[in-house]
């Protein structure tokens, strides 16, 4: 039932504050994460993990890419991320004490499931499923599970499943940091930020009105570029995927630093450039990338922190987000990109909940 909403996708976008709160329920202490959520012996077994491999498809793969930045920086563990359809058909070299993480909303994606089965013969320490469906094949077959509690996702384009996957992955990163005795201030700051996330996400949903205003110009374009740096690069990838999927506008994401290595040649007044610009340590670098776009007449749309000093030249549209703690920022910046693709698709009149050629669950290769 779509209730007051016109589409399941919009309903599911608005369900994110509750979906995140449900996913976190019972997983956090005062200033630490409750590792027992993973099972009785998790605490000791977590300590043995020295490496992480992540496999997934599509949007779930993007969640894995964000997690790599978190895991390497905060837990200090090497982490690799790969699309399941590639991973399952190659000989992987698995270092000692590696944890395999398979991420899937449905838990039935053929390639992800096959990747897990393949991994079981490769000498991993253990496998963990991050999944939204408790009774799914993936959850049944993995050693450990971390359930996202997003509730059923009906829209083909994944929204609340993605942000809750990110929540589960930040929780997991914090758990790994905790058992490895990493800085306690970082751990308690993550816990605080996770607890504050539902309210923050709620606030960011109010940007919808401004996003609606710019959707019309966007809808007349045939291509778009999405730029981000650090963990916001995979968020740019997710924004581009959402736009492609439901509005059928060709979109590509680049790490902002790659711009001048090729894609800048595409930029002119017909190429909107969407940038994800939180107030982090990379802002200054991003700023100079944006100037390059502006100098070539590109239409810039910046999703930026209200505290960020982006020089706003002519022709740029600036949408402000509240300041957020760095760890949770990729989660928060996902929302305006979901809304952008939704609003553009509405203008174009596409079938938002059932985009052409796509199925909700890809159970065949
Ligand atoms: C995009 C989307 C797909 C899925 C992918 C994996 O919006 O929904 O890219 O993310 O098919 O599906 P799950 O997560 O069920 O394994």
Automatic annotation (TrEMBL):
The keyword Transcription does not apply. It catalyses: D-fructose 6-phosphate + L-glutamine = D-glucosamine 6-phosphate + L-glutamate. Keywords: Aminotransferase, Cytoplasm, Glutamine amidotransferase, Repeat, Transferase. The active site is at residue 360. One of its GO terms (molecular function) is glutamine-fructose-6-phosphate transaminase (isomerizing) activity. It is found in: Cytoplasm. It is an enzyme of class 2 (transferase). Its EC number is 2.6.1.16. Homodimer. Catalyzes the first step in hexosamine metabolism, converting fructose-6P into glucosamine-6P using glutamine as a nitrogen source. This is Glutamine--fructose-6-phosphate aminotransferase [isomerizing]. It comes from Halopseudomonas formosensis.
């Amino acid at each position: 039932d779509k209730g007051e909403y016109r589409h399941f996708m919009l309903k599911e976008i608005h369900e994110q504050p509750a979906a995140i709160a449900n996913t976190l329920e019972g997983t956090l202490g005062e200033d630490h994460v409750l590792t027992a959520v993973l099972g009785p012996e998790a605490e000791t077994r977590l300590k043995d993990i020295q490496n992480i491999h992540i496999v997934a498809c599509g949007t779930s793969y993007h969640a894995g890419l964000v997690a790599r930045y978190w895991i390497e920086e905060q837990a200090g563990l090497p982490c690799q991320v790969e699309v399941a359809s590639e991973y399952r058909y190659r000989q992987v070299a698995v270092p000692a004490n590696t944890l395999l993480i398979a991420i899937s909303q449905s838990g039935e994606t053929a390639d992800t499931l096959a990747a897990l089965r393949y991994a079981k013969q490769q000498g991993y320490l253990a496998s963990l499923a991050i999944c939204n469906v408790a009774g799914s094949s993936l959850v049944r077959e993995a050693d450990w599970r971390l359930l996202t509690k997003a509730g059923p996702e009906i829209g083909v384009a994944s929204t609340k499943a993605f942000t809750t996957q990110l929540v589960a992955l930040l929780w997991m990163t914090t758990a790994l940091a905790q058992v490895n005795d990493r800085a306690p201030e970082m751990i308690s700051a993550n816990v605080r930020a996770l607890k504050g996330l539902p309210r923050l996400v709620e606030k960011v949903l109010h940007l919808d009105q401004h996003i609606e205003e710019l959707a019309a110009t966007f809808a007349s374009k045939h291509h778009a570029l999405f730029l981000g740096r650090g963990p916001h690069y995979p968020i740019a990838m997710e924004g581009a995927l959402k736009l492609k999927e439901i509005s059928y506008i060709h979109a590509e994401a680049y790490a902002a630093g790659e711009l001048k290595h090729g894609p800048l040649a595409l930029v002119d007044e017909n190429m909107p450039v969407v940038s994800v610009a939180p107030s982090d340590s990379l802002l200054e670098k991003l700023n100079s990338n944006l100037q390059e776009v502006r100098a070539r007449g590109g239409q810039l749309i910046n999703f930026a922190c209200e505290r960020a000093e982006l020089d706003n030249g002519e022709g740029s549209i600036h949408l402000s987000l509240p300041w957020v703690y760095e760890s949770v920022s990729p989660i928060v910046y996902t929302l305006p990109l979901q809304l952008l693709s939704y609003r553009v698709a509405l203008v174009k009149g596409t079938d938002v909940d059932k985009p052409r050629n796509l199925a909700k669950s890809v159970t065949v290769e």
